[in-house]
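Entry 14. Ran structure prediction on the chain below.
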Amino acid sequence: MISLPTICFIIVVALLFIAAEEMDKSSPLYYFTPIEDSTFKFDCSEANDVDEWILPSGSQVSVHLENGTEQVEGFEFTQSSLTIPSVKTNMVGRYTCVLRNNTKHYFYIPYVLPKPQYKNSILLSLGVSAIFSTICAIVWLVERYCFRDDSNMPDRTPITRKKYDSGSDTNSTIHV
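Output, structure tokens:
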């Protein structure tokens, strides 16, 4: 009997083969994970021979420019590249570049990384550091003044010394 993990593996492999049939076998597939709100650029051809781009929405954008830039649906197209000026989380999917000789290059964005929130991180680390420093200072003060071991301290009893006068032989006490 075939186990469940084996069946799942076979199904995944079959789906991968079906997906591979849809794409040209000679066309590479590139994966990217851009950061939200960043600018991102797909370079498709150095020869400036891009004929069209197919967007994840299915829209086809023909690129017939002479060293210029065309803007469509928030994207910037040239004869060699596609630029996303401000990446958003809904821009995931496959971007297909079709060259004039019908060669296709596939660019895939599986997900968009959220923009890092450095301000929150800095405030959190400063707050934790301040709390930790305050606790350390309190522990040190309590230990220093409340749980002090006086057994190692010198005895504070008065010291008796003899004072010599030329005329008398009396003892006097000096308190330190």
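Helices lie at 4-22, 118-145. Will compare against last week's run tomorrow.
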